[in-house]
Every structure is written in C-alpha cells, then in structure tokens.
Design goal:
Shape: globular
Radius of gyration: 16 Å
Distance between the termini: 51 Å
Strand order of the largest sheet: 3-2-1-4-5
Largest sheet: 5 strands, parallel
Helix content: 40-55%
Length: 164
C-alpha cells in the first residue's frame, strides 16, 4: 500500500488544499492530510479545529485520513511508513522553498520522495493568508474555501462577526 502525506498549516483550509488532497488521493492508496503545528506561528484556528475542518472537507474521500503533528515532518513520514510527501505548487515563488524542503526531507528520509502537484489555474493565487486578509475586511470568501466550512471560517475571521 502506497501512503502519502499532504502536510500543511491549513489555517484555514482552502479549495486549493482540497484540490491537492483530492488529486493525491487518486494517485496513492492512502493519504494523510497532516496539520503541522508550528509553535512559532500564531494561527487563527487551533490545531484541533483545523483537523476537524479537514475531516469535514475530505469526508467524501474514503482513502483520506486527517492527523496533526508537532515536530519534524521527516520523523512523522518515517513513523507512518509513507512513501511520499505531496506538496502543491502555485507558482515559481513556491518552488524555491519547496525544492529546498524536498532536498532536506530526502536527506532525512531517503526512502520517501516529494511529489509536487501543480495547482489548478483557478487556485494559483489562493492561499490561507489571502483568505484571512479578505475575510478581515469582510470580503466574500465563498470562492476560496469549501462550502461546508464557509460559515465556520466566516464567523471566525470576518470582523463584522467578531465581538468588540
């Protein structure tokens, strides 16, 4: 069985994330969407909230599970026996960083490959940071996040719903 890890912060989950996870699920037997907890970041959603959002948005994909991890991705990949790490690439600006990470992970876990999936053109501009920025100014984020998560994300991020 070929297992792949799709790591990310998923803060919040976007349609771009779901596109990459969906496409990875058609290439591998088992996919783990992994919420990587970075203690140096100040996320808008807790790790558990992000896990629940991913579970909700991927429930239609029978070979996808969701997990979270605080630590070195390479250690998780080895522990889980994954053969690959799947990363989405939006533009050349993503490539340099992701290439560096792929080489580092290859050094740390030689038995696992990094697979890059190019995003669909309609998601090339999309990022969690963009979603947060648009939502902060009460913009419409319905084209950016899965419909099943729109209300939850809107309530948390849109300033008109926040208590002052």
């Amino acid at each position: 069985m070929k297992k792949v890890i799709c790591p990310g912060s998923f803060d919040p989950v976007t349609k771009g994330h779901i596109d990459i996870i969906t496409r990875a699920s058609s290439l591998f037997d088992q996919v783990t969407a992994l919420v990587v907890i970075n203690p140096e970041k100040n996320p808008s959603f807790t790790g558990e909230e992000r896990v629940q959002m991913l579970k909700k948005a991927t429930q239609h994909l029978p070979n996808v599970t969701v997990d979270h991890y605080e630590g070195l991705l390479a250690n998780y990949v080895r522990r889980e026996g994954a053969v690959a790490i799947a990363k989405g690439l939006r533009a050349m600006s993503d490539f340099e960083y992701e290439f560096q990470m792929a080489l580092t992970n290859k050094k740390l876990v030689p038995e696992a490959e990094t697979v890059f999936l190019t995003t669909q053109s309609e998601n090339m501009y999309l990022s969690s940071s963009l979603v947060k920025q648009v939502a902060t100014f009460n913009g419409d984020i319905s084209d950016f996040v899965p419909e099943c998560l729109l209300d939850e994300i809107t309530r948390r991020l849109c300033s008109k719903y926040r208590k002052i």
